[in-house]
Design goal:
Elements (H helix, E strand, L loop, with lengths): L1 H27 L3 H12 L17 H4 L3 H9 L25 H12 L25 H4 L4 E4 L3 E3 L6 E3 L2 E4 L6 E9 L4 H5 E10 L6 E7 L4 E3 L4 E5 L3 E9 L6 E4 L2 E6 L8 E2 L3 E5 L13 E2 L4 E9 L4 E9 L4 E9 L5 E7 L10 E2 L7 E2 L4 E9 L14 E2 L10 E8 L2 H20 L1
Parallel strand pairs: 9-13
Antiparallel strand pairs: 1-12, 2-11, 3-10, 4-10, 5-8, 5-9, 5-12, 6-7, 6-10, 14-24, 15-23, 16-22, 17-20, 17-21, 17-24, 18-19, 18-22
Helix pairs in contact: 2-5, 4-5
The protein binds heme C (HEC).
The site of heme C has 19 residues, from helix 2 and helix 4.
Length: 439
C-alpha cells in the first residue's frame, strides 16, 4: 500500500517535472509551427501572399525559412510591418495598428537565434483566407457600395519616371444630396495595386460650392469610415477630378481604371455631425504664400519646418497622415491648448515615402480639442547619406511634386463641431473613463 502511494507520488512528480521542462524548453526556443506562424499569419501574410504587395509570400515554413535572418532584421528594427509612428510618445490606440508587440518581436528573435526550428506541424494555426485585392475591403462590414465611381482608362507604362493621370469625369448617380458614411479607393487588381502609388478623387460641385474629397489613397491607406453619427455632405451634380500618381514598377497594361466605392447614410437622413474629411495642414510656416517655398535642404544637411494652425471651433481628430517625400523623416503633431499646456498627439519618427499610412485613432483616443487650440506640426528632413532612401545627398532639395523633390504637409481627418457638441462629447468621454475605472 505504501509502495503504491509512493509510486503514485513519483508519477505525479515526474508528470509535473515533464510539464515544467516542456514549458521551459518552449520558452527557450519557440518553433515556427507553434509560435511564429500565428504572428506571420496575423501581421504579415495579408501583404506577403502570392498576390499581395509584399515581394515574397510568407505563408509556409518552406517559404519563411530562407528569410529567417532578414525577417529578424526587419522586425527587430521595426521596419516590417510598415508602421512608422513613434511608440514612445503620443496616442498609441489606433484602429488599424499593424505593428508587432514587443513580445512578438522577442519571439521571432528567440526563434531565429535557436536556428529557426520548424517544430511540430500539428501545432500550426488553422489556415485563413485572404480577401482578394479585387474585392471591396469594406464589403464585409458594410455590404456592397451604394455607388461606384470610375476614373477614365489609363495605359500603364512599365518603366520611366513618376506619371500623373488627372482626368475629369462627370459625377452621376445621385438624385438628391446625400451624406457619405464611408469610402474605399480601389486600384485595379493585381496591376493597379502595384503601380498606383497614391491618388484622390475630389468632387467639384456644379454650383461652384466647396469641393468634396470623396477618397484619398496611398499605399497603406485605402478606405475611410467616418465615426458613428458623422457624415460628409455630397451634392448631386459636378465633376470628379481624379489625381492619380502612377509609379512604374516594370509591369504594363492598357486601360487601367481606378474605382472608388461610396457608402451613404439612408436617403433623407442627416447625421448629427458633418465632417470635412481629411484636411490638408501645411507645415512650412508660410500661410497663403507660394507653397513650400521655404523648403531648401542643403546637401548632407537637415532642415526643420514648423507650421501652426489655430482652431476656430472645437474639433475631433480622427486620423493623422503626414506627407513628406524621400528626405522626410519625422513629423510631429502637437496641440497647444488655450491654457498654454502642450501635448504631443502623434509623432511619426520613421517616415518612409514608399508608404502613405493614415494613423486612425481608436474612438476613445481621438483628440477632442477646444476652440483656440493651436495645432503645431514639425517636419524634419534628412538629406544625409544616413537616410537609406536618399537618392542623392549631394543635391540641394526644394519643393516639388516628384518624389525626389520635397513636400511638407499633413492630412488630418477632422470634424469641426459646435460648443454644445463639444461639451457633450467631453462629458461622454469622462463618463466612459469613469465607468472603465469602476469596472
Ligand atoms: C502592408 C503590407 C506589408 C506587411 C503587413 C508586411 N510587409 Fe514585409 N514588405 C512589404 C513590401 C511592399 C516590401 C518591399 C518593399 C519594402 O521593403 O518596403 C516588404 C519587404 C519585406 C522584407 C524585405 C524583403 C527583401 O528582400 O528585402 C522582409 C524580410 C519583410 N517584408 C518581412 C515582413 C514581415 C516578417 C512582416 C510581418 C511581421 C511583414 N513583412 C509585413 C509589405 C508588407
Amino acid at each position: 500500500m505504501i509502495q503504491l502511494k509512493k509510486i503514485v507520488q513519483l508519477i505525479i512528480t515526474l508528470g509535473a517535472f515533464g510539464l515544467l521542462s516542456a514549458q521551459a524548453s518552449a520558452q527557450e526556443s519557440p518553433t515556427y509551427s507553434k509560435d511564429v506562424a500565428p504572428i506571420l499569419q496575423e501581421k504579415c501574410a495579408y501583404c506577403h501572399n502570392p498576390e499581395g504587395i509584399g515581394p515574397m509570400p510568407l505563408m509556409t515554413y518552406d517559404q519563411v525559412r530562407p528569410f529567417a535572418t532578414l525577417i529578424h532584421d526587419r522586425t527587430s528594427k521595426r521596419i516590417m510591418p510598415p508602421w512608422h509612428v513613434d511608440p514612445g510618445i503620443g496616442i498609441q490606440q489606433f484602429k488599424n495598428d499593424a505593428s508587432l508587440s514587443d513580445v512578438q518581436i522577442d519571439t521571432i528573435e528567440a526563434w531565429v537565434e535557436a536556428g529557426a526550428p520548424e517544430g511540430n506541424p500539428a501545432d500550426l494555426p488553422a489556415p485563413i483566407e485572404f480577401p482578394s485585392g479585387a474585392e471591396w475591403q469594406l464589403a464585409d462590414q458594410l455590404g456592397p457600395p451604394d455607388l461606384i465611381i470610375k476614373s477614365s482608362p489609363y495605359d500603364v507604362i512599365a518603366n520611366g519616371q513618376d506619371q500623373w493621370w488627372m482626368p475629369n469625369v462627370p459625377f452621376e448617380g445621385l438624385d438628391q444630396e446625400r451624406f457619405l458614411k464611408a469610402a474605399e479607393f480601389k486600384p485595379s487588381y493585381p496591376l493597379g495595386k502595384k503601380v498606383v502609388h497614391h491618388g484622390h478623387a475630389v468632387l467639384m460641385p456644379e454650383d461652384g460650392g466647396r469641393t468634396v474629397a470623396l477618397a484619398r489613397y496611398g499605399v497603406g491607406k485605402s478606405w475611410e469610415i467616418f465615426p458613428e453619427g458623422t457624415g460628409m455632405r455630397v451634392p448631386t451634380d459636378g465633376t470628379i477630378a481624379w489625381n492619380l500618381h502612377y509609379f512604374p514598377v516594370g509591369a504594363e497594361g492598357a486601360d487601367d481604371v481606378v474605382e472608388v466605392g461610396l457608402w451613404f447614410y439612408p436617403e433623407g437622413q442627416t447625421p448629427e455631425r458633418e465632417t470635412v474629411g481629411e484636411v490638408l495642414f501645411r507645415v512650412d510656416g508660410l500661410k497663403g504664400m507660394a507653397r513650400g517655398q521655404d523648403i531648401v535642404i542643403p546637401p548632407h544637411g537637415y532642415q526643420v519646418l514648423t507650421g501652426t494652425h489655430r482652431l476656430d471651433s472645437p474639433a475631433v481628430i480622427h486620423s493623422y497622415r503626414p506627407h513628406l517625400h524621400m528626405r522626410g523623416k519625422v513629423m510631429t503633431m502637437e496641440a497647444i491648448f488655450p491654457d498654454g499646456t502642450k501635448e504631443v498627439l502623434s509623432q511619426v519618427n520613421k517616415y518612409d515615402h514608399n508608404w502613405q499610412i493614415a494613423y486612425i485613432y481608436e474612438e476613445d483616443a481621438k483628440p477632442l480639442l477646444p476652440t483656440g487650440t493651436i495645432l503645431q506640426f514639425t517636419s524634419v528632413f534628412d538629406n544625409t547619406a544616413n537616410n537609406p532612401i536618399n537618392p542623392d545627398p549631394e543635391q540641394w532639395v526644394v519643393f516639388g511634386r516628384r518624389g525626389v523633390d520635397e513636400m511638407s504637409h499633413a492630412w488630418v481627418g477632422i470634424t469641426y463641431i459646435n460648443e454644445e457638441q463639444f461639451a457633450q462629447a467631453v462629458a461622454e468621454k469622462r463618463l466612459r473613463q469613469e465607468t472603465l475605472r469602476l469596472e
